[in-house]
Structures are given as structure tokens and as C-alpha cells.
Amino acid sequence: MASLTSLPHLQQFVSQSSYSSSSIRHLSPSKTHRVTIQSPRRSRLGKLSLVPRSALDEVPVVDPPPPLSPSSSGDKSELISSLKLKLLSAVSGLNRGLAANKDDLEKADSAAKEIEDVGGLVDLSVDLDKLQGRWKLIYSSAFSSRTLGGSRPGPPTGRLLPITLGQVFQRIDVLSKDFDNIVELQLGVPWPLSPVEVTATLAHKFELIGSAKIKITFEKTTVKTTGSLSQLPPLELPQIPDALRRASNRGSGEFEVTYLDEDTRITRGDRGELRVFVIS
């Protein structure tokens, strides 16, 4: 325990004082403590010494600072990081949602809602630049329907049509308003031929229709072979006339960005589809 004699300015004050005793008040942010010093007395060597009345009460006590508020930026950042790990754990092993069952869907939705609640409302009029880049899809609740179209009509996966889904990306350019869905596919062919690998790019334009809502409008689909057939030129697929399209597949859609930071994005579609992306 520190002695009062270790405080030079206090020792000098006592030495020069003509009073038999003095009281020093120490002010802390919330409490005031009184420290009492006995009158100086002379030792055998003729030097002044200070004898504290109580070794415990002699040291001024400063109250500890209050704990950080739960809403402080440091605590919030740590909580978000923890919740993001929880979400990644909930969707891992689900093959982007193709292998998800009902319990998996509920766990992923609950984990996403926790992040959305802590993160608060997204304002793309301020944070639009955070959309910029290439995002990798790690989970879509609509893929549990076992079709590549998600909640919309699309080719099924399985033995009837041997299509294997690879990685799925979204490439967003906030300046040109380009919004491309990029899907890697593996097409089965008769034995002994090797599967054909292709990358399909579904080009869209996007616009903000709210503080956090985005509308995308389809423009074209381009298919490019990869792997051993990468030397082939890309092929632009013809569009289906609007008159022949289903009302539910007009080439446009809307979704809301419910969470967004530098490396993670959560969206909810106009049909309740939950999607989770990480920056690629």
C-alpha cells in the first residue's frame, strides 16, 4: 500500500504547516473522502516523520469509472461480430440452403433477426457505397424448395435434370447501377463425356425505391463455358417475350437490405426469401 509520504507536494505542505494536525479532502467524481494526518513529530535523528492514523484510511480512493453503456460502439461491434459467427454457424453445411429443412430455416431466420435488431435500420441513401463489389451468396432460404429459381419458377436440381449448383455471386456497381447475378453451374452429359461447366450471368439494373429497398429489372442472360471449354465465346440467351412469361416471372423483383456492413449483407425478398452474402 502506498504511503502518504510518497506524495511530495503533500509532504511539503505538512512540513511547512504550523498547525498540530490538518485535514485534506480528496474529491472523486462521486464521493468525498477525508484523510487525516497526525501532527508531525520529531524522530531520534531530528527528522520529521509522518505517522498515518490508519494504513487503510490514509489512501484516497477514487471510484472506478462506470461500465460501458450497452449501446457504446465498442460493445455493439463485439456483439455484432458474435452474432455474425452465430449466423454463419447456423447456415454452414446447408449447401447455400439446398439442404435446409424446416428447423434449419427457422434457426437461420432467428440468427439473422438478431443481427438485424442490433444493427438497426439500413439507410442506403447514406451507405450506398457499401453495396459496391462482388458478394458471395452463402445462404438462401428459397433454395430449400430444391429449384434454382428459389421462390420463383426455375430448373430443378436432381436426377431428372442433372444440374449441379456451384457458387453464386452478386456483382453490384453503384455508379452504373448494374446488378448482376452470377451462377456457376455444372451440366451433366452422357457418359463417357465430362460434365460441362458454365457460368450464367443474369444482368439487371437496380434502383432505390426506399431507404433500404431495391428494385432490380432484368436485361439479359449470358452463358460462358469454363474449364476445358473456356475457349468458346459467350452466348447470350434470347429473352422470352413478355406475353409468354408468367405473371410471377416478369424479370424484375424487389428486396430489402436489412443489414449491411463492410463484409456482410442480409436481404429479405418480396416473397419472404432470406439471403445472406459475404464480400468476395
TrEMBL record:
Keyword Transit peptide included in the entry's annotation: yes
A single Gene Ontology CC annotation of this entry is:
plastid
Which ranges carry the Plastid lipid-associated protein/fibrillin conserved domain?
Answer: 82-277
Give its localization. Plastid
Coarse class of the primary localization is plastid
Keyword Transit peptide among record annotations: yes
Residue ranges crossing the lipid bilayer per the database entry = none
Question: Where does the source fall among the domains of life?
Answer: Eukaryota
> Where do the segments described as Disordered lie?
14-41
Q: Which UniProt keywords apply?
A: Plastid, Transit peptide
Where are the compositionally biased (Low complexity) regions?
Answer: 15-30
As for family, the record states: Belongs to the PAP/fibrillin family.
> What protein name is recorded for this chain?
Plastid lipid-associated protein/fibrillin conserved domain-containing protein
